[in-house]
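Q: I'm teaching a short session on how sequence maps to structure, and I want students to see two examples side by side rather than one. Could you give me a first protein with its sequence written out and its structure tokens following it? Keep the formatting plain so it prints cleanly on a handout.
A: Of course. Example one:
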Amino acid sequence: MTTLPEGAAYKCYSVVNPIHSTIYFSPDYGEELAKLGLEDSTAAYFVGRAAAMGRVGPGIVTATFFSFSHELIARHIPAAWDVISPEVALEARWRAADSVLRRVLGEEATASKEMAEAAELALRATEGCSRLARPLYAAHADLPIPDAPHLALWHAATLLREHRGDAHLMTLVSAGLDAVEALASHTATGKGMSTKWILRTRGFSPEEWEAGRQRLCDRGLLTDGNELTEAGERLRQSLEDETDRLDAAPYEHLGAEGVARLTELATTFTMTARQNGAFPADLLGKS
């Protein structure tokens, strides 16, 4: 392992992760599952991300996803597995990832030597990941690597995303934040998912959202105007710093030169995806 320039690992992650995330904001996966009888888009999200763990119950999904209402999850899991098996759901997810990336990146980019290079670098980074205490990462790490370079990159981005995500949940629990508090404090930074999107997708009511904000106020982390206090800013920064520490291994394994090159390549792909409408304009923000 090598020492990286400050911030290089997170910068790399921040441009690789959107390559994976394109699937969540496109209709492709929902359409694939609808053909198989599962028509609810919320159920499609839970099935798609949980399928690598097998036919798990709602408790496992709540524990590993963290930022969703258990009641919302329990409305769809395990009932969805009676409609579509995890194995079939994973096959549909690959088809959806293929169609999404071809659309938002273009056929030329998906077939380029730069795509193959990015896939090779990202997969090399995943060699430094650890399964220990990282259930979502570990489940996805057991899946086979696709042959097509754009799907291999998407798979590697998935592994890097879940590796960091599992680590981040460790920090949230250590800080004593529940799901709503974690979401609300992140939204208050202006860098997290907007309140509108959280209430639309996470299964929490406006009353639960406001109660979570009030708990943050009571802890001195949030103002009545929904701005982070100095203590709140310190907490959010400490969460990111600790997550960076827990997620450093794959990027250290790749090395400074590899991280810089993967960042360069992934930045181009992510910018292209954004320009082609891969993500909603109002996804991030405080409102």
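Q: Perfect. Now a second example for contrast.
A: Example two:
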Amino acid sequence: MARSTTTYRCTECGWTSTKWVGRCGECQTWGTVDERGGGTAAPGRTAATAVTHAARPIGQIDVETSRSRPSGIAELDRVLGGGFVPGAVVLLAGEPGVGKSTLLLEVAARWARGLATTLYVSGEESTAQIRLRADRTHAIHDSLYLAAETDLGAVLAHIDEVKPSLLVVDSVQTIGSSGVDGVPGGVTQVREVASTLIQVAKTRNIPTVLVGHVTKDGSIAGPRVLEHLVDVVLQFEGDRNTRLRLVRAVKNRFGPVDEIGCFDLSEEGIVEVPDPTGLFVSRHHQPVSGTCITVTMEGRRPLLAEVQALVSPTELPQPRRATSGLDSSRMAMILAVLSRRCGLVLGRSDVYAATVGGARLSEPSADLATAVAVASAATDTIVPSDLVALGEVGLAGEVRRVTHLGHRLREAARLGFRRAIVPRDGADATPDARKVPGLTVVAVDDLVGALRELGIGAGPNHYTDRSH
């Protein structure tokens, strides 16, 4: 006879154990191992039941009912892959205060302006508080319904009564079910609430947006299975010190995951920014040394960004190295290459490097612009304002190719830039990169050649004599 046993399973990764432990042995997460109830040691057998829908040839499946519908915000539609798909569940996550509720209220209002009933359920704010924000952002419409609920049963009752064509729940961690143990926001409650809302969305073809909180390390709070259950996972990013907000797709079953949407968050609400390049480039009244422009790729969108550097002599035995918006490890590597391969003396100077407008440059294509900016600041040489620099700098001082070179150069030419320094192998591999109208492309092999093209020469206070 099969012996009855009790198993324990991790709600994050699915790891199982025959006894309870406080920490998962697989993903090392605390407090996620729950009892799965009684079972049998012998494997069971599931009997066949009646099918819900008969299987049909793939060519006979109707796809018109699954076409996406624009949300009314072009930048959000770009990330979603065209808009909301009927029955799709979107999880929007972001840090507190980044503007998630403001964005979704604007989405709900624009959806309602299309004479489509919209239900906005908030578990964090009262309806009066939401109304005050709607007055400020001009998001008032008769087809937009508000409800403040924290009970899952009440939310389902609102859905039955309103019959919305779009559902927004803010947030999934504040809704709880009375039929499940645990407090709202716990692993069990979040899983139950999300599963129920996803089932409602699928059976009634209601596009649903769930707001998710994030932990201190930036990951989405709650069980990891939440991200697997939903169709789309969006990350809402932004620096509190700037107005720029980015929506990035982490998972998307209906579109690309390499697109971003740009928004401007102000007191009057959130506004989409179709061309955010000007936010990352400063305007100087007079030419100044220590600056260089590059073109970075955010998803499929090329964005111009400015790198600024300051090299200042110091009497400290340990010179300072500070970065903002740049990878500190790559910055240290670039300084080493400038010192060893180009002979630039930086051991007795503080070096500061930063981007403009809060841009974060993590891809290697910004290496050449960073190196040019530092060398320009060290030698007090002015880099032409109509020039962009693209390329990855290697430890041997070589300049390597970057992806989407032609796309980047066309964007630079569109914005009025006239010269570009690029890797030679990248220009040779992309013949159309040399044929961008209005743009003179200069191909270089290494960092020394790039600095020579810019007229950044050796000086007695900045370079060592490498002939001896």
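Q: What should students look for in example two?
A: Point them to this: The first helix runs from residue 74 to 80. Also worth mentioning: The longest strand covers residues 301-313.
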